């Protein structure tokens, strides 16, 4: 199975984090449904041109969150995610992304007023399409 993960090698975000966030998003939004059989660690690492250790870490982290389950000898599968949990994951991901953006803006000297203005610009740009 081909999983649509896009890696940005120029990003400051660690590779495992990019993969983990995108895979989590695919699960939370239902694009990868419950019971979906994921590629083996080696196969997935090969398709992403990354280390087996990186993919193993992603799978372990998402299994610890309850989004994946591994059956010895059969592979890794998308776990059942209840609607309430799905909503919590969705909001948590959005909150973390916003927090990262605010921290980055603060680090380059943006004021709260500038951030608020930038937020509303971004919101309009995305939702006014």
Describe the structure in your own words.
- The chain has 5 helices and 2 strands.
- The protein has helices at residues 15-28, 41-48, 52-64, 83-107, 112-127, and strands spanning 68-71, 75-78.
- 59% of the residues lie in helices and 6% in strands.
- The two termini are 32 Å apart.
- The radius of gyration is 17 Å and the shape is globular.
- The chain is mainly alpha-helical and 129 residues long.
- The mean pLDDT is 92.
- A two-stranded antiparallel ribbon has the order 1-2.
- Helix 1 packs across helix 3 and helix 2 (41-48) crosses helix 3.
Shape: globular
Number of helices: 5
Strand content: 5-15%
The side-by-side strand order for the widest beta sheet comes to 1-2
What's the number of extended β-strand segments? 2
Mean pLDDT equals 92
Give the uncertain stretches in residue-range form. Answer: none
* Cα distance spanning the termini: 32 Å
Share of helix among residues?
55-70%
Give me the Rg, rounded: 17 Å
Structural class: mainly alpha
Q: What characterizes the major β-sheet?
A: 2 strands, antiparallel
Secondary-structure map:
Layout: H1 15-28, H2 41-48, H3 52-64, E1 68-71, E2 75-78, H4 83-107, H5 112-127
Antiparallel strand pairs: 1-2
Features:
129 residues, 2 strands, globular, mainly alpha, two-stranded antiparallel ribbon
């Amino acid at each position: 199975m081909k999983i649509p993960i896009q890696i940005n090698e120029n990003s400051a975000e660690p590779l495992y984090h990019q993969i983990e966030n995108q895979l989590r998003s695919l699960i939370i939004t239902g694009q990868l449904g419950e019971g979906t059989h994921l590629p083996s660690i080696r196969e997935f690492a090969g398709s992403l041109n990354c280390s087996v250790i990186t993919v193993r870490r992603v799978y372990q982290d998402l299994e610890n969150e309850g989004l994946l389950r591994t059956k010895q000898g059969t592979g890794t599968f998308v776990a059942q995610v209840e609607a309430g949990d799905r909503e919590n994951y969705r909001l948590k991901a959005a909150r973390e992304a916003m927090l990262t953006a605010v921290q980055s803006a603060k680090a380059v000297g943006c004021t709260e007023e500038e951030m608020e203005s930038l937020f509303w610009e971004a919101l309009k740009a995305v939702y006014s399409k």
